[in-house]
């Protein structure tokens, strides 16, 4: 079923959940230079689906109180998610502020939506999940123009006699993906132990987050540079909006899986072709998906007649955790942002080449090596680069999530999730990566495509993987050269039409 379901959502409760009384003093956390680029980011959304074959009233009586209590205990340690971002007109004074009594918004609802459809990997309308995901309240504006932003909202939606969903929406300035999943797993462990901290610690070691932001080194003064860059007019336009802003609702969400065997075949092919490179599962996956997404973009044919179309640069953005890099040496439990933004730029013609995956994999692998040796080598240009990539004519693909987050190990007491996904990818020009639920070493790739792109199924990444596996046996990528010739023919036809038009007008 592809089209959006006509479902009813019933609001049961909207409340505030705070850390336990008198458990925390007033606290202010400064922003570090790692945080400031995330002024250019829309809210991040993550959803977890769990099996729960019981009616709503059973959930409300037996499970909801435990979820609330364990969330409160968790916020005692992960208090920034209950705090506010304070953003004065002088952005360099921005900080995270917590006072006793601060809280986050929790919404409880139930829905008539089809749990089987919602958790399916098959294409479904992106709007199916919208009623299950909370919206962060807009910022409060103080008399002096200071903006006060809540940093997280949570919604729990029961799908009676089938399951339930836990979805989180948060501001990336509060922390990165590793910080988010540290928080969620801590909450899940306490919930599974029914709020018994001692029992939870015995079953799963609970590592506490580190909030020591004074340990973040900034010898090159990037923090000041980045705050100055926020004063640029284009920066004002992009604040809290995201690099890629795509608000189309005529999209389908789908998930496909690359098995360990498929990935290993392509890794072997790429490695044998490139020489002695270490090609990781991450590199192979990103290469396959990026090439396939560019093929989809080109197949629409809207810009083929555009001058220098083949020579235009396309961009892939992915994130690298810097906590353990020698230049920072932060604890793995550091809470906040500690990620480098990695960029790979390639000409469209290189991506569309018959064995373009080889060149793409080589370029991504090189960027991975470079960031490990010097994560912030181009740090002074980061904000201006983000502004440039935020222009509407840029082809940008962002990689969200990571198999290292082990999202399918998030067990609140109802076993591993039936499905979990980065829900914001529909409006951010992103794909999401996670480990496979079956634990067999494969990769799940979540993406959203225009409806007509899905209907042209021969261009989906799953087919590209099959083609790449065949190429490992010397056959090249099936169909790509043929499609390339068709595109060149269309381009030549348009050029001839333009020349005839010019001749006739003369």
TrEMBL record:
This is Uncharacterized protein. Pfam families: Transferase (PF02458). Coiled coil: none annotated. Residues 473-506 are annotated as: Disordered. One of its GO terms (molecular function) is acyltransferase activity, transferring groups other than amino-acyl groups. Residues 489-498 have a biased composition (Basic and acidic residues). The keyword Transcription does not apply. Keywords: Acyltransferase, Transferase. It comes from the Eukaryota. The keyword Transferase applies.
